[in-house]
Design a protein that fits this description.
about 575 residues, mainly alpha, two-stranded antiparallel sheet, 2 strands, about 70% helix, globular
């Protein structure tokens, strides 16, 4: 192996491979190794299974684990079912395109908010004094505990499940509906054969992903679980309680890895159920006024449910005191935005998100180059995929625990650098897969042609490969930025007073019951992410319509045209 890496040819790619492998070994494998080591380290400093036997003998652990499986399984099933009909209706109805676009935006709305906000939004919507409870009627159950978790988890997992199924329906041939009807199939049989069966693999993937996200999330349980103990809150309490127990905390972290690994294995297994057509025909959807009206009603109910939960963010900060003095005022907003410490935390979040996006995009793109644009041995390319699989398996809380153990006592502890590194590892998989998919579809002979013309590999990549994959790079940057703005699971163990982020500040404000500040900070996150999406979508659209220009020229022309339009409007 060493002879291959240090031999002649492809020196740049070999160097990238070595640097990426060493980096991920240091910031992924080593922290995970620290968690494993801590789990078998006894209080006396010996190696043994004392922590495991102690924790596994506690009924509270098994109760929390069972609760996590229960609420995650039910919420994943509900979210997948809702997402299926949302995606199906957008592809197989004749609803106006503008209406469909609005529906998409509403369904994806939760992606731009930290998960910890969902819990508080549900409380202020369906709690005893909540907005919906005041306008309609309070729910017949306590919002704290199972039911609150279930509602918030469905909201949290609906967008990713919807994206999986919405994309899957692009590859379903509509002509099979006509064929099924001509063969005399009944409506339900036609629906199953032409809508359910082709996406059954994606349905299973959406369920597994939703379960994984719900099971490993920390933000929602910490805000609304109450006395309904789940595995995520038990891990946080064990690690950050009045008397921390790092040994048992490490065991809980290892326990969280088991269903996470199982989820990834199952995702690979269900791929065999994906239905593939040799040729896809986008036939016109048949006219059916009753069907379209039914789906419009369905979308109206979902939109109303989602908006009614999050509308409290735009109500509570603008009233005197909810719900006792519901009078419009800007006093709360003025008081919060005049606090310099809030703006400092906001700057921290923006800075960490931007650096994480820049470093993460470059790092994932380099890894994708090794995978998709090199002639290195297959084991080198497999290494990149293996790292992607591992990072996709590790829950954010386990990663945060690993960094806490690995970096404690080092110069990296309680720094912004450790937050950037945690984000890099946590969100590595999706941008890596995006880049790999884009690079593998490009002409495989570009590097060879460049070499024959006397260009170096770096020059070919910078002049040819990067410009042709610029839309993907922009989407990778956007993914890293938005994810870094909303994450809390990993960074909750790593931030301190000097490195506080918006999401961890929200967690801190919970203890003081400052819910006005919580919703204002949530608005900061939401508006920032929406602005980022609009900017990067505009950049991507501009780049795609000006294909062939240089990278810097594209960006320069984009901002110049934007400035010109603004000046003309002001005139």
């Amino acid at each position: 192996m060493l002879a291959v890496l240090f031999g002649k040819g492809q020196k740049e790619l070999k160097l990238l491979y070595i640097l990426i492998t060493l980096t991920l070994a240091a910031i992924l494998l080593y922290p995970l190794g620290c968690v494993l080591f801590q789990s078998v380290l006894t209080k006396n400093g010996d190696i043994g299974l004392t922590n495991y036997t102690s924790l596994l003998s506690q009924s509270s652990f098994w109760t929390a684990l069972a609760n996590s499986f229960t609420v995650s399984g039910i919420s994943a099933a509900i979210a997948t079912l809702m997402a299926f009909f949302c995606a199906y209706g957008l592809h197989f109805t004749r609803i106006r395109p503008g209406v469909k676009k609005v529906i998409q935006i509403i369904v994806l709305l939760p992606l731009f908010l930290p998960s910890i906000t969902y819990g508080f939004a549900v409380i202020y919507s369906f709690g005893r004094l909540g907005l919906i409870s005041q306008l309609i009627a309070p729910p017949p159950f306590s919002i704290y505990g199972f039911w609150g978790l279930l509602i918030a988890d469905v909201i949290y997992t609906l967008p990713p499940a919807f994206l999986i199924l919405y994309n899957a329906f692009f590859y379903v041939d509509r002509n099979f509906i006509t064929v099924s009807k001509l063969m005399g199939d009944g409506p339900w049989q036609t629906f199953y054969m032409t809508a359910v069966r082709p996406v059954v693999g994606s349905l299973l993937s959406a369920f597994i992903l939703s379960f994984f996200l719900s099971f490993t999330d920390f933000g929602i349980p910490v805000s609304i679980a109450g006395e309904y103990e789940v595995i995520a809150t038990q891990l946080y309490t064990t690690m950050m309680g009045a008397i921390p127990n790092f040994g048992e905390g490490a065991v809980i972290a290892m326990a969280m890895l088991v269903p996470s690994v199982a989820s990834v294995v199952m995702l690979r297994w269900v791929d065999r159920f994906n239905f593939r057509y040799n040729k896809i025909s986008k036939a016109e959807v048949s006219t059916n006024a009753f069907r379209d009206a039914l789906y419009l009603l369905y979308y109206a109910l979902i939109s109303l449910a989602l908006l009614s939960v999050f509308v409290v963010m735009f109500v509570v900060p603008f009233v005197k005191q909810w719900p006792y003095q519901p009078y419009f005022t800007l006093d709360v907003i003025t008081r919060i935005v005049s606090d310099s410490s809030i703006w400092q935390v906001y700057e921290h979040s923006i800075g960490v998100a931007l650096v994480s996006a820049a470093v993460g995009t470059i790092f994932c793109y380099a890894a994708a180059l090794v995978k998709a644009r090199s002639q290195l041995p297959s084991w080198c390319q497999t290494t990149m995929d293996s790292f992607a699989m591992i990072t996709n398996t590790v829950p954010g809380m386990v990663l945060g625990i690993g960094f806490l153990f690995a970096m404690s006592g080092t110069p990296l502890a309680n720094t912004f650098t450790i937050l950037v590194l945690a984000n890099l590892v946590h969100f590595f998989t999706t941008p890596y897969m995006m880049a790999t998919s884009a690079l593998s579809k490009m002409n495989a002979s570009w590097e060879t042609t460049g070499a024959l013309m006397g260009d170096s590999w770096i020059k070919t990549v910078s002049r040819v490969i990067v410009p042709n994959s610029l839309p993907t790079l922009l989407q990778m940057f956007q993914y890293f930025f938005v994810s870094a703005m909303v994450t809390i699971s990993a960074v909750v163990f790593l931030t301190g007073a000097r490195t506080m982020l918006l999401t961890t500040k929200i967690k801190e404000l919970q203890y003081f019951e400052k819910f006005e500040e919580i919703f204002v900070l949530s608005l900061f996150v939401f508006l920032t992410n929406v602005a980022a999406k609009l900017i990067f979508d505009a950049l991507t659209g501009y780049v795609q319509t000006h294909h062939g220009q240089g990278l810097l020229t594209k960006l320069k022309n984009f901002f110049q045209s934007a400035t010109t339009r603004k000046a003309n409007q002001s005139i």
